[in-house]
Amino acid sequence: MYQRIFVPVDDSDTSNMALDEACKLAKAFGSNLRLVHVVDLAQFGWGGTEFLDATELQKSIKQAGEQVLGQAGDRARALGVTPDCKILESWGDKIAAVLSDEASAWGADLIVMGTHGLGGLMHLLMGSVAEGLLKVADMPVLLVRNPATEPSHGSVIPREALRSWWTRE
Predict the structure, then answer these.
(1) pLDDT of residue 122
(2) CA pair distance 104, 128, nearest whole angstrom
(3) Is residue 86 within a helix (H) or strand (E), and if so which, with residue range?
(4) Residue 167 contacts by C-beta under 8 Å, 6 or more apart in sequence?
(5) How far apart are CA 16 and CA 13, in angstroms?
(6) Contact criterion met (CB below 8 Å) for 29 and 22
(7) Residue 34: exposed, middle, or buried by beta-carbon count in 10 A (0-12, 13-18, 19+)?
(8) What sequence ranges are listed for the domain UspA (predicted)?
(9) How much is the pLDDT for 126?
(10) Topology of 4-166 in CATH?
(11) pLDDT number for residue 160
């Protein structure tokens, strides 16, 4: 049924739940699994670099994204699925569009991702990558939510990226 399952990942519990579901489907259908993590490098490419080394911060963010993706790949392999993993870079683009474009280019026939269930004012201000993806994707999207927790969200900037940048020598 599904031959190519595309899974955006971050460092949240909800993302891990979505990955687990995608692995179940991949095993059941013998599907290829692609894991992706988007790093938005544009948010640190602005002026004012006399106070901030934007290039170093972007490098740290990309390295942290690779770590998030590596951990997701390890999780998939532990569940018996060998994924293809890819870092996607965004330079201020809508993350949903970056994901949709990559899923289409790869030939995905299903996207599986976690949704953090932001509501109220936070949803109004931030929007939702998952909701945006539902609007632009040209293939089915399976959203996985963790009902056992309060609405949570993975780091906009992976914590390790900030930590490594802040503590660099």
Answers:
(1) 45
(2) 20
(3) strand 84-90
(4) none
(5) 5
(6) no
(7) buried
(8) 1-145
(9) 42
(10) Rossmann fold (3.40.50)
(11) 55
Q: Which residue has the tokens 């683009």?
A: 93
Q: Tally the C-alpha atoms within 13 A of residue 152's C-alpha that lie toward its C-beta.
A: 17
Chain position carrying tokens 């936070």: 122
- Distance between CA 113 and CA 110 in Å, rounded? 10
Tell me the per-residue pLDDT of 111-149, one tens digit each, with 9 for 90 and over: 999 987 555 554 444 458 888 898 999 999 999 988 765
Tens of pLDDT, residue by residue over 81-108, are 999 999 998 887 788 999 999 999 999 9
| d(C-alpha 54, C-alpha 91), whole Å | 13
pLDDT of residue 128: 81
At residue 29, the 3 state secondary structure works out as helix
Roughly what angle, to the nearest 10 degrees, separates helices 13-29 and 54-78? 50
Task: Tokens 């990558």: give the residue.
Answer: 129
Distance between first and last Cα of the chain = 51
Contact between residue 55 and residue 6 where contact means Cβ atoms under 8 Å apart: no
70: Cβ–Cβ under 8 A, 6 or more apart, which residues? 85
Q: Which pLDDT does position 125 carry in this prediction?
A: 42
